Amino acid sequence: MKVIVGLGNPGRRYEGTRHNIGFEVLTELARRYAVGCRPKAKFDGEIIETIVDGQPAYFVYPLTFMNESGRCVRQIVDFYKVVPSELLVVCDDFNLPLAKLRLRPDGSPGGQNGLEDILQRMGTHSVPRLRIGIGPLRADWDPANFVLSRFDENERPQMMACVARATDAVRVWLNEGIAAAMSRFNRDPAEPKNAKTNDT
Fold first, then answer.
1. Residue 198 pLDDT more than 60?
2. Mean pLDDT confidence for 43-53
3. What is the pLDDT of residue 187?
4. Closest residue by Cα to residue 45 from 58, 34, 33
5. For residue 136, is the peptide bond before it cis, meaning its omega torsion is within 30 degrees of 0?
6. Average pLDDT, stretch 37-65?
7. Residue 143 exposure: Cα atoms within 13 Å on the Cβ side
8. Is the pLDDT assigned to residue 45 strictly greater than 90?
9. Closest Cα partner for 102 from 14, 29, 197?
10. Sheet strands side by side (includes 40-42)
11. How many helices (H) and strands (E) does the chain have?
């Protein structure tokens, strides 16, 4: 069983904001792989149970607001006996350029408060994550206000394509593991396949 957690804030006022890109990826995953599956409200979140390429998968929307995302995740991990390697957290990252994907098997939260809360409650930094670039942070913006802003008309098409590519990356992670997903998606699509990537 694999668990994919998309991070965001619940409620219509946050729909379409940079901080909710994790929710958008889950919604695209559900559109592709969970047609007819109704979300269930449990563990301080919403969970969609489905099958992707023959294996059980859970799509999880924490509804605790971003900074307490770990409360939902910890309950799911404990109930279903999920090991960290079977968990993938999808979240925004304003330190990455717009629409850049970065998969890693572990590491620090890098200033992402939802990811930080998950790592603290899990008691380990060895939690796979897919970070999605929403930056660069504009010099005249407070980070808290920036992540709650919406993509402008020039950025939105890039992010729609990015959500589709991130969904592809999740499927590769499900079927082939984190190393294969990193190799394929940590580089920009235009980069040659033998180009080195920076996984920091």
1. no
2. 97
3. 87
4. 58
5. yes
6. 96
7. 7
8. yes
9. 197
10. 40-42, 45-52, 55-62, 2-6, 87-97, 129-135, 101-104
11. 6, 7
Cα–Cα distance measured from residue 196 to residue 159, given in angstroms and rounded to the nearest whole number: 24
Give the residue-averaged pLDDT of 7-30: 97
CB 19 within 8 A of CB 9: yes
* DSSP-assigned letter for residue 52: E
Q: Give me the residue label for tokens 């957290």.
A: 89
> 70, 104 in Cβ contact below 8 A?
no
Q: Scan for tokens 């980070």, then name that residue.
A: 143
| Widest CA span in the chain | 48
Q: How far apart are CA 183 and CA 6, in angstroms?
A: 22
| Closest CA relative to residue 50, chosen from 66, 35, 65, 28 | 35
Alpha-carbon distance of 116 to 34, in angstroms, equals 28
Catalytic residue numbers read 19
d(CA 174, CA 1): 9
Strand partners, 4: 59, 88
The predicted pLDDT at position 195 comes to 55
